[in-house]
Amino acid sequence: MPTLRHVLVIGVDGVRFDLLGPEVTPVIWSFTGNNFLTPVPVDESTPTWSGPCWATIATGTGVAGHGITGNDLTGHRLAEHPDFVTVATRAGVSTLLAVSGWPPLALAEDGGPLFAEAGRREFVPAAETSLAAWDAADEAVTELAASILAGEGPRLSFVYLGAVDVVGHVLGAGPAYREAARAADQRVGRLLAAVRSRPSVADEAWTTVVVTDHGHLDRGGHGGREPEVATAWAAAAGPGIGPGGPAPVTRQTQIAPLVMAALAIPA
Ligand SMILES: [Zn+2]
To answer: How far is the centre of ligand 1, averaged over its atoms, from the C-alpha of 40 (Å)?
Structure first.
C-alpha cells in the first residue's frame, strides 16, 4: 500500500489554454485521461500579471488577502498568507523550490521572495535578457529538479519554468510561442519521468499538478481581461483525483488547498 504522500507542482508561466492539445503539449494533455485538465478563469479582482496570479496560486487567497497587484511584490501580506511551500516546510515536510529566471519568486528582489521558506532553494538566473538564455535556464532547472526528484525526492516540490511567457512577450503567441510550449511540455514530461523512476515509487503516493498563471494576447502581452489572457488552466493527477469526477479546481485559490490536502496538512 502506498502510504508516503508526495506532491510535485510544476508552474509554467503564461501558457494559453487554447494552445494545449495532443499535438503541442501531449504530456499536459495526457492529464485529461484519468485525472483532470481544466480551464481556470483568473478572478475578476486579480490583475493578469505573474505576481498576483502566482501569489493567488501559491497562497490560496486572492489579492484582498496577499496584497500583490503587480510584478513588484513590495507591500505584500505574505506573512499572514504564506505560500504552500512555506506552510509545508513549517509542518516538517521536506520541500524543494526550483525556479528558472524570474527572481521575486525565489529571491529577495522586487519585493520577493514569494516563496518564503523551503528546505532546498534553487534559482537559475536567465543570464541575459535573451530567449536563448531563458530556454537555457528552464533546461537547467529541469535537469536539476529531475535529479533531485529521482534522488532524495522531497515530499513537496515547486518547479517553475518561465521561458514560454518571455517568448510570448517578445514574439507574440505565434509559432515560436508554440515551440516554447512544446519544449516546456517535454520538460514537464522529464520531471514526471523522474518521479516514475524512483525505486521507492511503489511505496509512495504522488500527486502531480501542472498550472499556469495567465495567457497571452495574439500579439503578446497580458494584464487585461481578454479571454485568451484571463483564462488560465490547471492539471492534476493523483490519489483521490478523477476519473470522471468534477474538476476539483475551478479557481486559482483552490490550488494551494489541493496541495495541502494531498500532503494531509491542515490548511
Ligand atoms: Zn506570468
So the answer is: 14
